[in-house]
Amino acid sequence: MGFAMAPALWALVLVPAAAALYVAHLRRFPRDAVLHPRSVALAAAAARAGPWRRHLPAALLLFALTAALLALARPTLPLPVPADRSVVMLAMDTSGSMRSEDIAPNRLEAAKAAARAFVAALPRGLRVGLVAFGGYAELVVPPTTDRERLRAAIDGLGFIRRTAIGEGLLEAVMAILGASRPAPDPWSGAPTPLVVPPDARPVRPGSAVIVLLSDGRSNAGVDALEVAAFARRQGIVVHTVGVGQPYAAGNVWTIGGTLDEETLREIAAATGGAYFHAASARGLHQIYRRLARDVGWERRPVEVPALAALVAAVALVGALGTAIVLRPVG
Fold this sequence. Notes:
Blueprint: E1 2-3, H1 14-27, H2 39-49, H3 56-72, E2 75-82, E3 87-93, H4 107-121, E4 127-133, E5 137-144, H5 147-155, H6 165-177, E6 208-214, H7 224-233, E7 236-243, H8 261-271, E8 275-278, H9 281-296, E9 297-303, H10 305-325
Parallel strand pairs: 3-4, 3-6, 6-7, 7-8
Antiparallel strand pairs: 1-2, 2-9, 4-5
Helix pairs in contact: 1-3, 3-10, 4-5, 4-9, 6-7, 7-8
């Protein structure tokens, strides 16, 4: 806990001062004795109540004073608030190898479930988009705050032949930039050099994030590491998630090649992101939930003077209530 107006804490010296006044008041003896017709009954009641009960109202009153003075100092607590992000893109491998059943029920269905959980855990106002890629890439949903549209698009993902990680990454980068991706040369068919299109919108470094999932290795399209370098120049962070095993499993039904962890690690390292590996549906779900927390939220000091004021009010009511309940009945 911190305080936005720490100098106001000096007012807390009033608390021990009030306590000292209370103790001094208790030590004062009356000059004249007062006769009460039920003095014996009162003495017996005081003995049964115990010495601490007579001090309870005063203790609660001092606690209320302490909480009220803390409220004046504007206390702060580190609470989760939406991170300062502009857009997050999901890039999902939907190649034929995602049919493999080493992750139940299969890799694609597990990835869909994890992606839905990821979207649900993000702040509502954060724009999120979806890219699917196999041998080619498709912008399924441009960045939007429409969560229902996004969830429906995730549910509707199907399979695409071959794997082109670079194509999927490039499509996600261009979606963040709000630009059309470079067209190939009409004569040679070679892709256009990776340059920022004239219609691209500027991106504040670190404000845009891509979460790319793949279970294989590229066998088509542009080089993924070249696209990663291009993303880094635009200030875009890429987290990568590898699904399945980097070796051929012999006890479950799989299709396609092995996982290219090396490339996924290099993509993440080149852009300031992190690489994660999931060998089960539960592990994949946990990775995406963690990414949602890291990408969508951050802890910042938030002022909570109302909370301290509420505590003070409750303590004050408690002090008044106990004073009435414990008041001797004559």
